[in-house]
Amino acid sequence: MEDCSHLLQLLRNKHLRGPAPAGKRCSCSTMIGKMLLWCGDKRGNKKTFRSIMELKEYGVCMKPSKSNNLKNISFYCNLWGSLEMPRLMVDDSTASKFMNLVALEMCPDFDNDFALTSYLSFMDSLIDTAEDVKELRVTGMLHNYLGSDEEVADLFNRMSKDLVPDQEIYSDVVDNIYKYCNNLFATTVVKACYTHFSSPWSFLASLAAIMGLIFTAIQAYYVLFPRSKYYETP
After folding, report:
1. pLDDT of residue 99
2. How far, in whole angstroms, is CA 228 from its chain's centroid?
């Protein structure tokens, strides 16, 4: 039995149970991924952050982490970026539960690392609109038993208001995301693929445009070099 002075502390321990990332997860990246992160520009200003849908435009995919520990959030890069997070269930009790846990962490006589407070702030940085919630829900990262995706987005925006997180808990994750999103590969090749090949219709339109360029080039070649030139009789 865990030695807890309050039931909220027991609930907090439940959310933080399980393995957390050891060290910097960029070590899990491939050699190409490490090069992309190394070439990226690490921003000093972390006040602005990219939402889920913005990260998707840069080729970042969401994956469930191997434990439900809310500190088990990591980012690594193979060729595309991957953000791993624990799954979360959101229902009618989520707001009161997390607000009480935040209040517990704010108690002056409770020595802690503000893990739940930092988690809420991190999630708020990822969730701006209902589209961000929808993406998390579709990928299985978030189970919505509250209502609409808009309600979940508003919930995280309200819960994280005026919170003071520990910036160090997810510093490696934030730094690697910035490095990935600010390298030439992510800002050109990946975004071009997302823009032109993210749906069957855009893929077909791009394919038609490419085929049109090929046929135009062939036509221009035969205009400049007619076939009869090569079949003239001596």
Report:
1. 94
2. 59
